[in-house]
Amino acid sequence: MESKQNSDCSNEGTTLGRRKMLILYGSETGNSEESASDVERMARRLRFQTLLEEMNDVELTDLLRYSLVVFVVSTTGQGDLPKNARKFWKNLLRKRLPPNCLRQVKFTTFGLGDSSYYQFNWAARKLHKRLEQLGAVEFLPRGEADERHEDG
Predict the structure, then answer these.
(1) N- to C-terminal Cα separation, the chain
(2) Under 8 Å CB-to-CB from 131, ≥6 apart: which residues?
(3) Angle 95-21-92 (CA atoms, 0-180°, nearest 5)?
(4) Tell me, what's the pLDDT at 14?
(5) Which of 37, 57, 72, 129 lies most in the core, judged by the most C-beta atoms within 10 Å?
């Protein structure tokens, strides 16, 4: 996946220069990637500089450079994160991480799942909880999509 960056701001010192959103996705079939792309388009319309990436392609310290971070993640298997998010997840689980290492991060999560499974949206729920344990602050309540919903 080629990273996409919006750099149409001519003056980095303005308010727009501080309106930076990182949109990360974890996807097996492409649904989360597509939803993350939708979020990116909306954020650009709201004049955010955006970067859209697979979760595995960023380091935890990268999160600190953005005013907002949005995670879009599907649940796979038995409540697991997709392959392109597992390295990032393992980094979040490191025992040596200080409890407030992500206190500067404002985030939200959006999960994609199927409510016919017991582990419905577990990946997004686990991710959300771990980010809060590390001091990150939710700026918007977690969202959950259900493939079984009448609107699909």
Answers:
(1) 26
(2) 71, 92, 102, 105, 107, 109
(3) 10
(4) 41
(5) 72
